[in-house]
Amino acid sequence: MSAAVEGRPPAPAEPVLVTRGLSKSYRTGHIVQGRRPALVDLDLQLLRGEILGYVGPNGSGKTTTFKLLMGLVRPDRGEARVLGEPLASRAWRVRAGYLPEHPYLYDYLTPAEYLDYAGRLFGLSRDARRRRARELLALVGLERSADVPMRRFSKGMLQRAGLAQALVNDPELVFLDEPMSGLDPVGRRLVRDLVLDLRKAGKTVLFSTHILSDAETLCDRVAVLRGGRLLSVGALGELLRVDVTHLEVLASGIARDTAGLELARRAEPVGDRLRLEVEEGSLARVVAAIEGAGGRVLGVQPVRRTLEDYFFEELGGAPAGAGARGSAAWGEG
Amino acid sequence: MSLRLALALALAATLVPLSQDRIDRRAGVFRAQEEVLYLWSGENVKRLVPGFENIAADVYWLRTVQYFGGQRRFARDKRFDLLRPLIEITTTLDPRFEIAYRYGAIFLSEPPPIGAGRPREGIEVLERGAQALPGSWRLRQDLGFFHFLFLNDPAAAAKVLTEASKIPGAAFWLRTLAADLLAKGGDRASSRQMWRQMFEQAEEGIIRENARVRLRILDSLDTRDRLAAAVAEFERREGRRPARLEELQAARLWKGPLEDAAGVRFGYDAATGRVFIPDTSPMWRPD
Amino acid sequence: MRAGVNRTLAVAANAFRETVRERVLYNLVFFAILMTLAGLLLGQLSVRQDEKILKDIGLAAMDLFGTLIAVFIGTGLVSKEIERRSLYPLLAKPLSRGEFFIGKFAGLAFTLFVNLSVMLLALMLTLVLTQRRPDLGLLGAVYPIFLGLLLTVGFAMLFSSVTSSTLAAVLTVGVVIVGRYADVIRGMREVAPTIPPALVNALFTILPNYANFDFKSQVAYGDPVPAGLLGWSTLYAVGWLGVVLGLGLASFRSRDFQ
């Protein structure tokens, strides 16, 4: 499921976004005022053509980062350059798109009207706007609701409309804050495919999520935040440190206490199968033990940590559970 | 809607007019307005509604008309103690509200039951109006008329009418009328002329109606005087006073009806030979 | 520059569309009913009073309804966008905060213009249908009413950029009421001589004097309003609007949208 290799342009990518020391704290309290740091010293680079996942628990500074970049709040310190322009310039906004978290898009308008309005703000001609609205509504699966006032939209439909408006100007750089939120599996797949298409078209995407499996399946690199600070950035492989000294063996038809299995470092039942963690050197003997007891070896894989594991282990807190871990290793998250 | 709910609604709805009626009976229909009038002067009301003075004046004017009648019929149960404050507030809010001054003046000056019987106050109202609207010759004209008609002061009337005649657009006969008043001290012909003018200048409504009645009163007075002359002539011829007014008709000294302009029979005192308008007649006015 | 104007107009057009969709213009229905009733019921009084009273009602209603729209829609223009965050996707586009702010103002100004125009036509129609002359002199009162309403919108937008829509509405109503009393306050010198004149003058200067936009009485009596006076009232409105919108814009620009 790793998307790491598909469609990446070969040349070393230049950064489309660079932040240095970007910081923001908010005033808290009404009577006694304190300051709560929301983002501290963010040094981040976004390379052209990549999909960067921005992950972290609630309150870790993800949305604050987006707001700083979009000019909705002003940084206390630090600077940023987007598409070669200073942060405060409006010039780069012509080439960028933004989907906020929980977008609210004028419930008295239809999505077609909203896209037309957005198009006007980009200075598109009337024909271009009309064409673009049609394309985008088809892209996000809202063609049949093009003339329905958005007050009647479900959360999922609003999310998709929000996505459409983020792409009105065919942007080079797209910022998506929790794009999967509120979507059913069909919607999530739609968004996922859309993001992948964007990358295929050479665009750059920064998206934040707290659904780690989405980040795993879509991103080239992942940036992890906690408490307003950037903990680590890197390709998934680096972060997750694929561990090849141990292997996972999936077997069926044998019980846990079968002789020979004590060589395995770990053994857990997964449904009616058994999952074993085995050192490379012991692999042959374990396989023999399984087959000798009348079982079958269904598969062998290198041990892989999931992002979730990483998350919990690095950030504190137990992993979600061996069952979850197992299934993550073998299939959809 | 369920039947119970509908019944409950109907019951609640009938409570509203029923209780309103009871409240009105106990406290009087216009109590809210009356309190305001007694508590607030025109200046204070004006301060309260900046930007909406005109429409507030209209509201007070409409209340005035409600109280005292706007159409041909005169209202019953009038509260003349409220007339002055209502007019004062209306004209303070909108000093150009010409008809309010006139209306107030007439119904303050006319004797009861038609008016309050306070001609001095009526004249004060007209004076305020004449000051606020110096270009209005009609208000000054009314002021002059009222001095004569209600205060019996032909000299003052003449003075005011002369001033009125100098205002641009004033009627040409004001000057001659003033001269007449000065010369002859005023008589019924002058009164008639004045009421005639007020009749013609008024629009259809109770101001005009009042003038019409006044003219009829003058007609009745004329008829009375002619009857008295006929009685005197009868006495001269027959050596005695007639016992009844019909005798004048029999003696061909009188043609036409023996009723005043309201259709009420003239009163006759055979002992003194006095012909009078009985106080039961709408044409009666105190001397 | 041109692109900026186009964006501002786009915002204005959308603001107008919003008021239409939110059925603000239904107030015109009430106005029409009011005019009809007034035209019919005032038949009790003599002819000349009818015309004056009809005009009084029409002009007062324009002022009142217009003020209500200016306050309640005006205060929502900015604060509602902030509260609901519908602002966010817009400001991420090449739309500056200034273009957004001025665009919203222009949209509501246009709404008020349409509203007043329709009301004026309805009043003229009522006059014609009740056999009186339609009086173009009414424009002499309607135009300054419009100026006053624009100023009210300006205040509404200023307050709504610094505080919530509810508080902004309260403050704007407060300013409008006090503004109508500005003349009374000026006259305070005679009524309450103990108050130091410096204070009275200061108070009068910092308050918008809405009496400068009130020519309803003379127009109802058929007096024309001198063009020079209207010109100065316009400049007064422009001056105040400059201050109010400028402050509002400055506040809006510097705000963090948490």
* Shape designation of chain A: globular
- CATH level 4 superfamily of the largest domain in chain A: P-loop containing nucleotide triphosphate hydrolases
Order of helices and strands of chain A: EEEHEEEHHHEHEHEEHEEEHEHH
Number of strands of chain A: 14
Number of strands of chain B: 2
Instruction: Please state the oligomeric state of the protein chains shown.
Output: heterotrimer
CATH fold group of the largest domain in chain B: Serine Threonine Protein Phosphatase 5, Tetratricopeptide repeat
CATH top level assignment of the largest domain in chain A: Alpha Beta
Output mean pLDDT of chain A: 83
Low-pLDDT windows of residues of chain A? 317-333
- How far is the first residue's CA from the last residue's CA of chain A? 10 Å
* Name of the CATH first level of the largest domain in chain B: Mainly Alpha
The major pleated sheet of chain A works out as: 6 strands, mixed
Task: Kindly report the spatial arrangement of strands forming the biggest sheet of chain B.
Answer: 1-2
Low-confidence stretches of chain B: none
Rg result of chain B: 25 Å
Helix content of chain A: 25-40%
Q: Helix segment count of chain A?
A: 10
Q: How many angstroms does the end-to-end distance of chain B come to?
A: 70 Å
Whole-number total of structural domains of chain A: 2
Mean pLDDT of chain B: 86
List keywords for this structure.
heterotrimer, A: 333 residues, alpha/beta, Rossmann fold, Alpha-Beta Plaits, 6-stranded mixed beta sheet, 4-stranded antiparallel beta sheet, 31% helix, 30% strand, disordered C terminus, B: 287 residues, mainly alpha, Serine Threonine Protein Phosphatase 5, Tetratricopeptide repeat, two-stranded antiparallel ribbon, 13 helices, flat
